[in-house]
Protein 1
Amino acid sequence: MSIQPFHIDIPQAVLQDLKERLAGTRWPDEVEGAGWDYGTNLDYLKGLVDYWQNKYDWRAQEADLNRFNQFRANVNGTGIHFIYERGKGPNPIPIILTHGWPDSFYRFHKVIPMLTDPAGYGGDPNSSFDVIVPSIPGYGFSDRKAMTEDAVADLWVKLMTEVLGYETFAAAGGDYGTLITRSLAHNYPDLLIAIHLTDVGYPDSSTDFSTLSPAEQEFAGFIQKWWMEEGAFNMIQSTKPQSLAYGLNDSPVGLAAWILSFMNARASIDLEERFTRDELLTNIMIYWVTETINSSIRVYYEMAHAMPAPDRGKRSSVPAAVAHMPLDAPLPREWAERNVNLKHFTEMPRGGHFAAWEVPELYAKDLQEFFGGFRK
């Protein structure tokens, strides 16, 4: 399995083409007073696109990303892009951090230095990690190949053990990253030190609702309402991703509107109280310059049409931590206990679905506290 250093260097022609497409946007109308109820707000998006055209500096963001050690490895025939930063403490734990949709490896850019060099942030050098942040296949600078969570977990094991040489490792993630991390724990329990999650899945048709506690019933009701109001993207991406991709791959404004709609869907706080404009646009740019929106949404189709494993949903024995963010669904501790071997549960004081990106200090601290009990 080959491994090569990787450096982000987007051709100037791609950036010039983007500018021309932004300038030629044909804007739709909007219902008066719509806010975000119909999707991404028109006035907000016009302001963001103006910033994108006139003030946003991709080259500065590109340089910032290139401060990390990045690589590409061919793992079982699939090209995987990943950040690999070694810990500066005496006994770092190797940890693989997995993003979701519609974010990217960029979700973790703030926490990487906090985890590799805790002493540099006023922490204990003994709590450092070797941090591996891959781009899921179909996303970013990995190959445009849509894969199920189990298939990705198989690649992560090869990456961690055969490419990087670790005998055991820790794993963490959220959203699609939760599914992949739980798959690692379920299918490779002897390799996993422990796992850390920011969500643990949701009640569905396989759930015996008669066994749920009052808090779990409330959680289930919230999820049902949320899916009715916000879940259309899942149905579209699970059934007709190709039809959607033509517009999103051709129009940067269409791509931004689609991504921002779902980044804003789970929170009552304005987007730019959680992320800067540069951060929002850099995440969108990773999809745009790599042309991976189609393969990323095609993941939903592959998962929806995969034959479920006979023991799907079985609770793993691997020790787990769950951090609940207040802007995310109202996850009760007992639901976490039902789904994972829970050893650590944190009610975060702030933050939402993209925890490592929104509240990196809190996220890094929770990982350090939980995994501290597993250091040799």
Protein 2
Amino acid sequence: MAHPSRTGAGARRAATQVAVLTAVAWLAAAVCVVLGLWQWNRGNVVISQAPSTRPVVEVERVVSAAAPGDSAGAVLSQDEVGRRVQVSGTVDPAVDLLVPDRALDGRDGSWVLSVVRLDDGTGVPLVRGWVPEGTAAPAAPTGRVDLLGVVQPPEVSDIAPSSAALPEGQTYVVSAADLVNRVDYPVASAYVTAAEPVAAAGADTAALRAVPPADPGESTRRLDWRNLAYAAQWWVFAAFALVLWRRALRDLRADRRAALAGDVPDDPPDDLERHLGRDPAAAAGTAPRQDRSPHPADGPGGRDVSSTR
């Protein structure tokens, strides 16, 4: 059994080993996790910011009916959906429509739709606001308007709730294909929801509410698979470091239990003392035993009888 003082020294050594091993393993794991996160962020490449966070521009710079059909700006790109735009022009009195079956905050109602004639001679559909079902829409403003809004992609006829004909002054969808039949100038293939209700000066706008954009838009990204693979590798290294740490702790505990049980002595073996010229038995105060075998000339009892006649 190990001496108590030596057992205490062994316990202190084991505690120091555990502390050092734990610090190194967790530091290595933390470094690997941080490197993995860095590679992950490099693998998610932002192509464009969320449209709502980008500066306000004129609507003609986002989508315009004056652009050639196969050029940029003729059709609203996905990256520009939800972009805040400035609309400057004149509201066309020939287009004053309701778009029924449009709920807002759980209430049935209709969108109020007009067309703004821009300075370049083209038009852009404008959702001036929303009114509850059975409520008349306020009159459209006359003269020039300058307003802020959010650009949205045109609607398709498939979303129409019914194929039945609507009363005069109503339409199921907001689409340039429908509006070009009501005006004599090109209309942009998109529409704008006004940030604030738009109505004629002095009109009762108590029931008119702004329509939130159906699609606020989002940033576009692409994935760099090589960097993502590097990120996964770093995280595997972190897990491997922790696995090695647990296994090393288990081995240290097993060795310590064996030492306490006496299976593995903490002290150097007695052979080392013999090698140094010190007999363990002599050190303990006991004379070494001389193992002397009887000589053939000895008589009974070991007495020398070689000279006896």
Protein 3
Amino acid sequence: MAIANRLEIKQGQGLVMTPQLQQAIKILQLSNLELNDYINQELERNPALEREEEEFSEEASDEFAKSDDVTELGVSAEGDEPGASDSIDASYEDVYNDADIPAAESYGSQTDWSSAGSGRSYDELDSLESTLAQEVSLRDHLETQANLAFENPQDKMIAAYLIDSIDDGGYLRIDGEEVARNLGIDEEKLEDIIAVLQTFDPIGVCARNVKECLAAQLHEKKQLDEKMALLLDNLDMLAKHDLRSLCHILEVDGEDLAGMIGKIRSLTPKPGASFGSTSSDAITPDVFVREAPNGLWVVELNTENLPKVLVNNSYCEMVSRHARTEDEKSYITECQNEASWLVKSLDQRARTILKVAREIVRQQDGFLTYGVSHLRPLVLKDVANVIDMHESTVSRVTSNKYISTPRGVFELKYFFTTSISSSYGGEAHSSESVRYQIKTLIDEEPVLAPLSDDAIVDILKQTGIDIARRTVAKYREAMRIPSSVTRKRQKSF
């Protein structure tokens, strides 16, 4: 067969990623802070764009709030309601003072932006500077470990909530009783999650006070004996440099006390300080959820958080009339079109966030009413099908977008959980609710006749939960619950 050049014409269809569509996709996935920076850049670049005056923005916000973008949703969840941190004895500034311490060692139809794919033009590729290594924050470091340590979506949500409460020093500043009440869990469950967090690197992180922080580090070094524990109980005396009283309490001489103090001074009182000062920007929710007097849930956008920009058409017309060349007219027309598209994209972003938030609240009203244990199985596709959008669009909307609920502020993506099918063909069960039932069965089992995994499977199937024995074992191990043989041995003593 001879090789020859020939000319062929083929017809095909393809989606063209226009700059406007790329901009709309980019805006949709930006967080509040990133969006404000982007708007500021556009205001500097585009003379046809300007900030909306405050009096007009308030009127527009009221009008937007009165439209269909504020929704009341009924509560249909069924179930029953499930059932203070220690003060710091001495500050680490006092304990680690060198003095006196012994020396020791809606414009148009709804647009599905996601179907365009993820392609970018050459001009939009990341610059070389943006590829340089960035300092990992303490929060990111802990979240990475939490994703590996917790399999249960319920536990992951609780852990993320606690990690958000950690200060730059690595201390957990919470009221345990209040947090447990907000999340709809018991304090024992909260303490279990905190205990796991306190095993994370750096050692001592997530402690409630100095004593707890130092004890974790000494335990890691296998130096936490009875006398060291007693010294930690009397940190206030160490802060006051009352060494004579400490020797009497610990029943040691001055040399031994100096060695113990040296071990204390070798520890890190601020385990989170090694990550530097993180940006402590307060999370501003994109959506508010509140309960109306009639018992319905009201979902509304945070209008204070919406960028307030508009197109200055009068300025564009004036410049266009006085333009001397076609290039000048073309430039101002292009700026006007870009500004108009940006305003439309911002409006579309706000309405898309609200649509997704509405559906999440409708699906997860059990969480709002009863707490984390009543989260329902939910995936991106479930929300996408209801609001008639692509899954990747929902994914973009739920990333870095926050919702303020009566139980706290959560990222939208936290409400998506896996499901377990029903043995009777009914509604699927959330995996975390199944874990909760497994834990309840084990807590209530007879002391001398603990339930085996097979027995738990039979009981759950009677309640309509189709689950395999290996899945029960997996969930049990994830909750750090030993086998039935080990539990029987432990309870027999």
Protein 4
Amino acid sequence: MKPDVTAFFDDATNTISFVVKDPMGSSCAIIDSVLDFDFSAARTDTKSADNIIAHVRANALNVEWILESHVHADHLSAAPYLQEQLGGKIGIGKNITVVQDTFGKVFNEGTEFQRDGSQFDQLFEEGDSFMIGQLRGDVLHTPGHTPACMTYVIGDAAFVGDTLFMPDFGTARCDFPGGSSEELYNSIQKILSLPDETRIFVGHDYKAPGRDAYAWETTVGEQKAKNVHIGDGADKDSFVQMRDTRDAQLSMPKLIIPSLQVNMRAGHMPEPDDEGDIVLKLPINKL
């Protein structure tokens, strides 16, 4: 089946969120939503999520799933807000528990922070499947960028999160805690083993040099032939050397501190303090 895919581009974080609809009915899933965050003022806004809500309501869609491809380090998730407004179950990869354990220590969260993934409604494993109306989705575990990265293969479309970018931009960084360029190479090979005509939808785009417009849809065949990091049969050793060298020169995403604290909680803010205030932590020399 060929799902109907509507993309929502967030200019502030270069994130693409997707509404994926069963072509035979009104059921849909939302993938990788954005909660707007002004870091300098520490203020949230729901404008990006409200655009998705307006689309869902205008088309009388029924949200069955709110899916996260991984714990994002560059934007906050709006999953709880969308669930409150539209319903649906929040899902992520089972290795969220690894991410929670890692960053629970980084942010000194203490024993009150549950590290069992219970903040999410569904923890997916390799080989799991789910339904969006009559449309089947299959789950691939594709770690490397993070331990919990998942690719959702829904009909003829694969939603790869940050694992792959457009062919002219390449592949995801692997230098976050728990990341691995070797694992990323293996995960990409898993994605590229899908049929060549499989549509690939990427989670970010930054307009590679020479390209005027943002883009987020490609195919397995195009990635295999043209991806500047992994295409044309690039071998594992050369990819790992390229990726590790490149990653060593990258700075941290500007929203990594708030994003990790919120997203490892399924998009929920930390519990308020005794005065009802929500406070995020700033760990020094930890990332």
